[in-house]
Amino acid sequence: MFCGEGSGRSRSLHPVRRGENRAVAAMLRWILGGREAQGAVEKSPTLFIGEEQPKNPFTELQVLKGHFDIVRFLVQIDDSRFASAGDDGLVLVWNVETGERLMELRGHSQQITAMVAWSLINADTSHTSIITASSDRSLSLWDPDTGNRVQTISDLQSSVKCLLVLEHLDLWLSGGNELCVWNQDFKLLCKREVHSDAAITAMVQLPKMHVAAAVDKEIVIYKLAVSSKLEVSVQPFRQLTDHHDSIRVLINVNDGLFASGSHVGELIIWDAVNWTIQAYEHILWEEPHCDGQAEIRFVSQKQSDMSIHHLASNGEVILAAVGSGLYVYNIHSRNVVAYRKMAHDSNVLHTMLLSDGQLMSCSEDGSVRMWEMEPLPLPAEPASPGFFGLWSFGRSSKQTCPPVKKVPEVPILKSLELTGDLIGHSGAIQMFLSFGEKGLVTCSTDHLVILWKDGERQSRLRSLAVFQKLEENQGLC
Amino acid sequence: MIGSPDVVALTKEDDFGEVYPDPSVLPEDFSVPLFAHAANANPWTKTSYAKFSKDFILISEFSEQVGPQPLLTIPEDPKVCGTFDLNYFSLRIMSVDYQASFVGHPPGSSYPKLNFVEDSKVVLGDSKEGAFAYVHHLTLYDLEARGFVRPFCMAYISADERKIMQQFQELSSKFSRASECLKSGNRKAFANELQKKLKDLEYTRSVVHKETELQKMNNGCYSTQAIEKANELANVEKSIYEHKDLLRQITSYPNRKRQDVECLQPESEAPAKATGSDVAFPFNHSDAEHNPADGDVSDPRPSYTPQLIKAKSAKCFDKRLKTLEELCELASFHQTMDQLKSIEKSFRGDLCYIYTSQIDQILLGKQKITNFLFESDWGNGEPAKHFEVAGLIPHLDLPQAPDGSGEPTSLETCTSFGDSVHIKLELESVDGPAESSPSDLTQETSEDAADIETKGSFSSDKSIETLGAVSPSNLHSHLDVMGRRGTSDECSGTENGIFFDRSTVSSANAPYEKSSAQPGAFSLLDNDSTVDVYHTETLVKVDTACCMGQEGFIFEEPEPVHQRCGETVVKQEPLSLLYGDLALQVDFAGGEAAHEHSPSAVLSFPNTLSEDVARMNVEESSDTTSYMSISTSSDRAPSPLGHGNPVTVKQKKKAGQSALKFIRQYPFAQQAIFCLLSGRTLVVLGVDEGTVRKLVNALSIFVPNLGRYAEQVQPWLCCPFQLTDLQRWKLIGLQRIASPTGSSMLYSLSRYSRYIGILDADNKTLRCPTYKGTLIGHIADHRTQIKRGSTYYHHVQNMLTQLTAKAFLYTFCHHLHLPLGLEDEDAVVQRRTTFLYHLGFSEEESKIVHYLSGLIKQRYVQGPCQRGIQPVFAFNYTTSCLYKI
Prior knowledge:
The complex is a heterodimer of chains A (477) and B (885).
Chain A: H1 15-32, E1 58-64, E2 71-76, E3 81-86, E4 91-95, E5 101-105, E6 112-122, E7 125-134, E8 138-143, E9 148-153, E10 162-166, E11 171-175, E12 178-183, E13 188-193, E14 200-206, E15 210-215, E16 218-226, E17 232-240, E18 247-254, E19 257-262, E20 266-271, E21 277-282, H2 292-300, E22 308-313, E23 317-322, E24 325-330, E25 335-340, E26 348-353, E27 358-363, E28 367-375, E29 414-423, E30 429-434, E31 440-444, E32 449-454, H3 455-473
Parallel strand pairs in A: 25-29
Antiparallel strand pairs in A: 1-32, 2-3, 3-4, 4-5, 6-7, 7-8, 8-9, 10-11, 11-12, 12-13, 14-15, 15-16, 16-17, 18-19, 19-20, 20-21, 22-23, 23-24, 24-25, 26-27, 27-28, 28-29, 30-31, 31-32
Chain B: H1 5-11, E1 56-63, E2 67-74, H2 78-81, H3 86-95, E3 120-126, E4 131-141, E5 149-158, H4 161-166, H5 168-219, H6 224-251, H7 272-280, H8 324-327, H9 330-346, H10 351-366, H11 371-374, H12 389-397, H13 412-431, H14 438-445, H15 452-460, E6 464-469, H16 472-490, H17 511-515, E7 540-541, H18 544-547, E8 554-555, H19 613-621, H20 625-631, H21 649-665, H22 669-677, E9 681-686, H23 689-699, E10 713-717, H24 723-728, E11 731-735, H25 740-751, E12 756-760, E13 765-769, H26 775-779, H27 789-812, H28 814-817, H29 825-838, H30 843-862, E14 872-874, E15 880-884
Parallel strand pairs in B: 9-11, 9-12, 10-11
Antiparallel strand pairs in B: 1-2, 1-5, 3-4, 3-6, 4-5, 7-8, 12-13, 13-15
Keywords (chain B): Autophagy, Cytoplasm, Guanine-nucleotide releasing factor
Region (Disordered) (chain B): 258-300, 430-455, 622-648
Family (chain B): Belongs to the SMCR8 family.
């Protein structure tokens, strides 16, 4: 399970400057009275979608106030509830339908570094709890129904960076400078130091009682063993050292594959059983050498522009947030399906794959953008794959040859078309959470959580409420 | 009818002309000019011939020393009374006090007895002065006064006889309340006084007793001095007994009258002021008749030291009578004055205005669901409304039951008298008013021996007519007669007089609408421009079956609403609700008779209350703006919006002036207004605070759900705004500054540009979604003929009211929101669209209805306060464009 990044490195280096650029461009547009003046800031004219967005269903918003600092995590509790947490150490439970704040879970004195929901299913009842980890070196289990802190462990040796729940084992793991295995009752079952300066930043569950953990540039495969006496032990089993820079994301793709992304834009797809590399992509966002501008761009390009901040997958494709761009990779055909280098004005922090080739991404520029993968109309469209560097490596050739630029064999590229954007936050959007037709929740550095909803649906629901009340009151009075 | 104008005609004293001549009662040869003072262009004003400029309240006293004298007027401004002779009028009104406030030794009783006399309520007129008055007589107790009573009266003086007669019930109940307040204070003060007097007497008795003993010792039991002293002692003892009896009487005053709790609130013993002044002027007492002890001065002090009462009587005219303040406790006095002031305020304006307001209020009361949208001072719980809605309901039922059984039975004192008048009135209404004469009446009323004096005064001066001494028991007949009379001469005007919106005849649960269709809406009269009475044509005939979802609805003549604008002018004073059932022929202007199936609709009316009407009238009738500025100089600058004060209608009217300027000046005013009405926040950007504030103020009258304190408006903001601000404020004045803050402000402007319209006051540009419809053209036509702000404000209110009505209709029609049978959502959407189209809304304009409907829904479901739940901010994605001058 992906637990979110605890490190501060994912924050933007230049969000302010970029924001200003955008503002200036926008003002320019206004003053000129049109929207032709995109300027040099955004190369692609479609990136500014304008104010007419017929495909954007979110026409209503609710600002949920309650946090006092950056809100970093959102976790869904059930169909109608979610929890938000962030640097103020508060965990707030909200109702997604009404926007009501249901609970305020107080206890952590410092920022929250990881949060997961844990559903305990007993016979026919299921109950969801929330586990939080904080910089105050404590772990807590909360009951979102009552707001009680059910369990708490403090005075850990180091703060926990990520959490992983193994529901079928009724166990959960915490990762930091050490990997700990806990049971339902918050009892430490076993502990394993990480033999490295770095800490575990992400963990995923693999088949056959294995867990993959990202530790700086390495992926460490741990094996969990449960003895007959229900004693649990965890052993490092294998170290995968194929990344050249620190690993930022680790996700499960499907039963047989998992993927990792690094700070320099390496995307590696691994076999989940024998941990071999299935595909290796190094995304460089190389500029075409067509005009003078490109030179400057090339020089100014920074590594962080290629850093993979987030990966999302639906088992078929992987959506990677690379710098401020988006990158869609098809697992079966092993090629790039679609990409957009400058999908946002700043680093993309979170992405999501919806059905029907719809994507969503949020960024440090404070906007959520909705995309649609559309087949390119004409081959004449300058959709040259030369925009990016694409390397496919076999495991054998990995370290030997210098990267060779290759034109993909099957250029069935689709374009990523912007269908709508959500503007509301005044700071970087850290994360979002979709409740389907009930709406979308975003959280941001501006301390706000915003609930985006389909205005028409809400209006319908309100009408229903009106007529219900009319019936109760037996007429207007 | 008593005192009706025919009396004047017969007296032929002067060329007094009734403004509303009743052709049926005027002699053929007597032609009265319709408007004696044609200079006054307002046909409804009735004060043109009177010597005072507007209605006022007069308090007079029948002083035992100097006779009738005026004490004070409300308002106190001497200009109000003008050349009107208060002394003369006091004499008139005090002289008709028939009431037998008999105190003293009743026959067969040897002790003085207090009578708890009911107040009497008399209506009288003085044609010479052009004054008519509701006179409320009351008596206050004063230990030093003759018979312990001081007769007072409070009179509401107006030049409009009909106003007095038709507002009698209201006047009576309000003045009764004020009087009750005064009297309860007086009773307390009287009891205090008695207690002090008793202490004095006790002390005197002990002193006299001692002296008697001394005399007996010194001079023997039968010496002259001793006998004198013994007599004195006996007198003092008798006096004590009598005072105790009085105290018992006053303290056992039946509490049945004490329903009016508020009057009795100041229970605190506050005799400080009264006593203080009494110390300064010790006065003598002349109650020799009933007070054999001749106990003279009660000299109460805060910490009371009993005084010796000298057995010497002073002359009657030497003493200083207590003032009204002293007679009542101070708190009661001030409370009463406040009450009277509010009475004066609430009866300002002419009858038509009062009627309109009353109808207004009643209708508003029915439209609680939508009032919050555009009504400025509705629902804020102000008790200052000048009539009680509940109080009017009996009026409505009156014609059905003229001899209503609701007669107060407790008013024994008045009943017999009232009955006699009642009979008389019945006779007159049959015979025709021409035959009534003041003397008849006087005889009728003077049954008591005490009234001989009154009669004399009547005969001495024919110019005074007692219009009727009205007690509640005969009020009904009064109203009945007035009603019949009123309708006879006013129905002629109704066919083009009263129009009302079809939508006013709203859902059938309204009690009085069931009985018959009532006149509903009026548009306001304006002198210089055509008053636009828009008829919401029955565009949609939604009968109940339709709403139940069986039939679907039928559109009837989907003709555009707007064509009717400006066709009609109100030529007729609105009729009282009292007349509604009798003869009012409601003219539907559209000629349809389908009002039984009137659509369930809402409407909210321009609220014209809580306004200094007299001044307004002056303003309205004078055509120069310069005069306006003078006339309003007293309260020139109403405090600006958003300063924690409730927004008053006055402010809104001022805003109307600015709005008028705005729509004349800016060709894109319609687009700006569209922004506001469709719920898109409008940001007014500018360098100069004054300009921006003025624009914000002007535009504020278009903001739906403005809030009592204009919470939805931020007139001047100097820092960048946030998303939450857009949620909170629908109209923002923003400072344009060239500084880092300024650039971040511009940043927020451009960032949230999709949610806002930006009106640049410096460059005179507007950036907002396009609007090309015609609807707002009717609200804001830059070629409008309307010249005055208040008129324009009312015009806007009128239009917004229509919008509200349609939004209400849209919100509460089932079939527009719920699928019928197996329909899918698309069918419902389609129906909605068609519905709005037939209501006359284009696609753009539908957004207004959607927004208003959204507000209504939210309000209806959640109620006015939505604590805990964060507000919802709805918007839509549309392209904006830039408008320039």
